[in-house]
Each structure stands twice: as C-alpha cells, then as structure tokens.
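User: Here's a protein and a ligand (zinc ion). What would the complex look like?
Assistant: Let me lay out the input and then the predicted complex.
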Amino acid sequence: MSSAQYSAKEMLPGVFHIFDSLGVHLTLLVGEKRALLFDAGYGAHDLPAFIRTLTSLPYEVVLSHVHHDHALGAIHFERVYLHRNDWDLLPTYTGAFQRQRVVERAGLTAAHNEAYLNAPFPAVEDMPETAFDLGGMTAQPLFAPGHTPGSVALLVKERGLLLLGDCWNPQTWVFFPEALPVRQYAKTFHSLMSKPFTHALAPHTDTLLTRDFLLKYDKGLNEKGFASAKPFIIAGQEHLPTLAYEPTPGSLLVFRQP
Ligand SMILES: [Zn+2]
C-alpha cells in the first residue's frame, strides 16, 4: 500500500512498518479484533485515511516517546498513550516551534498549514503496565528510559517481535538535554535484550533486525566503548558536547559527554 506521503510494508503477519515521507517509520499491529498504531510520525498528511487502507478495525495510538517526529501525528486522533515521564516535554516537542519546522519542509497549501499549526494535541493517557490485547496478538509496553525519560518499547510475543522506538537506530541519539546518562541508557538496553524476541523494528530503518545483531550492539555498550568515544558533531546541535562510537560495526551511538 502507498500514497504520496505514506507507504507500508508487511514485515511479519499483521505487522506493517509504515514510512512517513518526512523521514520516519511508524508500526501498525493488526490483531483479530483490534489494531494498535505505535507512533504517529510527523502527521503533516492524512494519516487516519492511510491507516484505513490497511485495516478497518478500531485501533489505539501508542507513542514510543514525546519527540516531534513520533508524536506530532497524534493531532489526528482523539486520545493517545504516552509515558508520564515524557509529559513535561510535550510543549517543547509538539508546540508551535516544531510544527512550524514541519510546515516549512512539507510543502503544504496555506489552508492545510493553518490546520496543522492550530490542531489541538489530543487527550494523553499514561502508558498502561498491562499488555494491549488485540485478539490473537498482544503488545506489552516495556518502560525503557534513556533516549528520553519516558521512552517505551513494545513486545509482541506472538510474533517474537520487539518494537524499539528510538532505543536503537542506525544512529542512536542519547544526547538531548532530556536524555538520561549513557550508562543508564545501556542498562535499559541490556534489560530489553532479556525479553523473548527474535526480531525487532526501529523507526529510522526499514529493515527487520535480528536478535543476534542487537545482542552484539548490547555487548558493545561497556566502559571500554564509552572511553573510546570521540567528539562527534551533529548538524544543528553543534552547541551540545557529543561523543560517538560504534558498539558494533555499522551502528553508531551518539551520547552526551558525561
Ligand atoms: Zn526520539
């Protein structure tokens, strides 16, 4: 399925990795009775219309964390789940400043811009501790503080699947002011690796990751690695003292100088 702004690929039965053309993925889980959308992308276009091309079931919207590229699409819905530790950051990441940046990139009409800039953010509910039951498929939230204080991963045990949110990406960022210290991030990542999964999906890549690959990355999250990290400048974030190294080849961890 695809439109000009969204496209989807079924990675596992009932698991659609959706590409938002502004540059991020969201994941739709379709059970027998309900569906669940994990993250909402930038939301500059009609996301609910695209979801309807994939399922006619009712669905919940669950945000992995508060950052704008995952959360702004929530404006299309009436209610979303977000871990309470990220609530204080909502004005920063879903307010006028971030929306204006999206508008400048999205090439929308003036009327559409107006609607996007003024749409209210929906009611926000705290992340439940129990699993979402979709009928023949469950999604268990896993509290995963690090990238942000309220980051959450999802375990879909019937598919042996872990949805990582921004806990891992080809370039993993743990340097924003709200990020936890790198050792706490490493502890969180290590605990995620103890869960029963064989494959994983991340928002900033279109490939299905293997457990083996993520275990290698996890093994590289250690003192020797942290000490080997070199200064690494992120465009637009030059003011932040960032360091980086590869816990495993091809996978870069960027973190704030401790
Ligand atoms: Zn993020």
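Summary: The helical segments are 47-52, 68-71, 90-94, 96-106, 110-118, 182-192, 211-219, 223-228.
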